[in-house]
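Hi F.,

I've been meaning to write this up properly since the lab meeting, where we talked about keeping a consistent format for the predictions we share between groups. The idea is simple: the sequence comes first, exactly as it goes in, then the structure tokens exactly as they come out, then a line or two of notes. No screenshots and no reformatting. I'm using this chain as the first example so we have something concrete to point to.
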Amino acid sequence: MYSNMYKIVTEATVIGIIILVLGKMIMGLTVNNKDKKHPKGISFAFFSTGFLLHFLIEYLGINCWYCDKKCAVKIKRFI
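Output, unedited:
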């Protein structure tokens, strides 16, 4: 039980960091050079969005459903 929760929290943390990095990169590319002010808390918002979204997707079973469906299609194509 605890190892599964540890795995999900670790995955959610990694996804949160990835969303944070991608969000900061995209904001850096799209915000005008003259106006480099970012809203306060944007880093926290990016990280928490990725973390909570991954946690919610795992909790609702969407990830498992998607992977099972995708794997079933690949197996059918292979056979």
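Notes:
The mean pLDDT is 80.
The chain has three helices and no strands.

If this format works for you, I'll send the rest the same way.

G.
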